[in-house]
Amino acid sequence: MRYISTRGDAPALGFEDVLLTGLATDGGLYVPESLPHFSIEEIRSWRGLSYSELAFNVMHPFVDDAIPADDFRAMLEQTYKEFAHQAVAPLVQLDTNEWVMELFRGPTLAFKDFALQLLGRLLDYVLEKRKQHVVIMGATSGDTGSAAIEGCRRCEHVDIFILHPHERVSEVQRRQMTTVQGDNIHNIAVRGNFDDCQRMVKESFGDQSFLGGKTQLAAVNSINWARIMAQIVYYFHASLALGGPDRSLAFSVPTGNFGDIFAGYLAKKMGLPISQLVIATNRNDILHRFMSGNRYEQHQLEHTLSPSMDIMVSSNFERLLFDLHGRDGALVKDLLERAQQGPVSIEDYRWRHARKLFDSDAVDDKLTCDTIREVFERNEYLLDPHTAIGVRAARNCRRDPAVPMVTLGTAHPAKFPDAIAESGLSVKPELPVHMADLFDREERCSVLENDLSAVQAFIADHWKHA
Ligand SMILES: Cc1ncc(COP(=O)(O)O)c(C=O)c1O
Ligand SMILES: N[C@@H](CCOP(=O)(O)O)C(=O)O
After folding, report:
1. pLDDT value of position 376
2. What are the tens digits of pLDDT across the range 206-250?
């Protein structure tokens, strides 16, 4: 399998290099040159497989011969064994044909674990083989950071630097990152927002000279193709659990960086019957505004009760734009360069095509709280604020009540006690046992100004062999 850049001007790479590369040299994101396609019969034959066996079938064509099949199988087995539920991603029914798929049963309680606990193992495997070192530089609005630290902290060949927006993640999220001790783990709180952190990461990939040529950067954000690849699997898992592939499913996906919903879009292209994909955003609704009015326009980033989705510059949207533009990298490059100067639109026929692929909705804090309360009162089931946005958007956008609608449950409610309290419920979501002493653990974090050179100097000084 070969991977090409969405900006059309970087060398095509194999899986191993794509895993280590992050951004392409032309500033684009890597995507597979062609997608595998599974027939209905083949998908049907996967009924009854364990999550890791299913994951092998879905992902193996992307990994190809870069990793021997038995080694890859073993990695998947170890990864999903660590999840706290036998089903790995259990489905919970809220109403007739209305489901939540719980993607927060991994070690750090968010959907990021599905990909990042695997990514750590993949990196370790490849770096050990190459006897190579990398500096991981990642941006987080709260969840990627802890999942990446957990996934990579035992990797011998990495130093990891995670940038989060200072005072803009929940206390549980912050502590999940800052209380993990290790010489190779560094948390940086940037006096800015998530977009600032993500911009610094992307600019650093573009010019890595601050590392003095002694090592190279690797990415844990969903700019890394391996992240998206692992997130495709649970769409197949949900389908097979609910009667697929002989019936179609709809999905509602709480969206920020567009990685998770892009994985759903790929699952559909790979042959999974999906009749509807709903983009669910909070008030940082650039994607919803684009889907409703063909206007892609940055607004001021707002702080909401769903902080992990406080994102305006949505990385993976570029991967969709690439497809919408007939995979013409030059057109994508031109569009995204113009988007930095002001609002842009795409040709009407391309936009209409996007509208056929996705529905969308934006849910504000009040509606988020109403949804948390309503679902708890009716079902005694506690939603985290991000999942609540997905459930509300699913209800607002649903096209066919006869089709099962699955909202991706992207985080555990215990990560966001303030949002639960804000919704008027007195119930206190409990952290699982392995995190029971989270508030007693010592924190380690450096607060830096919103300044790329300060962040790069910090990294250059602190990586192990600097
Ligand atoms: C809890 C939670 N829900 C939803 C999202 C949005 O996912 P994506 O960025 O893949 O759109 C994120 C992070 O991005 C998240 O942490
Ligand atoms: N919501 C994310 C933001 C980063 O998104 P990613 O999927 O590109 O890593 C977070 O919680 O950090």
Report:
1. 98
2. 999 999 999 999 999 999 999 999 999 999 999 999 999 999 999
Q: Residue 446 domain-assigned?
A: no
Once rounded to an integer, what is the mean pLDDT over residues 338-356?
Answer: 97
- Per-residue pLDDT, 253: 98
From 268, 134, 297, select the one nearest 204 (Cα to Cα): 134
293 by DSSP, 3-state: which?
Answer: helix
Read off the CATH number of the domain in which 284 is found. Answer: 3.40.50.1100
Q: What is the pLDDT of residues 87-112, one digit of tens each?
A: 999 999 999 999 999 999 999 999 99
Ligand 1 proximity of 413 Cβ (cutoff 6 Å)? no
Pair 187, 145: CB distance under 8 Å: yes
CA of 343 from ligand 2 middle (Å) equals 24
What's the CA gap between 375 and 378, in Å, rounded? 5
pLDDT single digits (tens) 19-70: 999 899 999 999 999 999 999 999 999 999 999 999 999 999 999 999 999 9
195 Cβ inside 6 Å of ligand 1 = no
User: Which residues does ligand 2 sit against, CB inside 6 Å?
Assistant: 140-145, 221-222, 256-257, 259, 308, 315
Q: Tell me if 243 is assigned to some domain.
A: yes
Residues 289-323 as b or e (16 or more Cβ within 10 Å = b): bbbeebebeeeebeebbbbbbbbbbbbbbbbbbbb
Atom of ligand 2 nearest to the CA of 164: 12
- Which ligand is the nearest neighbour of the Cα of 109? 1
Look at residue 104 and tell me if it is in a domain. yes
Tell me the residue range of the domain where 258 lies: 86-108+228-422
CA of 395 to the centre of ligand 1 (A): 19
Atom from ligand 2 closest to the CA of residue 173: 11
Residue 466 is predicted with a pLDDT of 55
In a domain, 260, yes or no: yes
Number of domains in the chain: 1
| Nearest to 365, CA basis, from 429, 286, 422 | 422
Preceding amide of 307 cis, omega within 30:
no
112 tagged catalytic: yes
Closest residue by Cα to atom 1, ligand 2, is: 308
pLDDT at residue 154 in the model = 86
Nearest CA to ligand 2 atom 12: 140
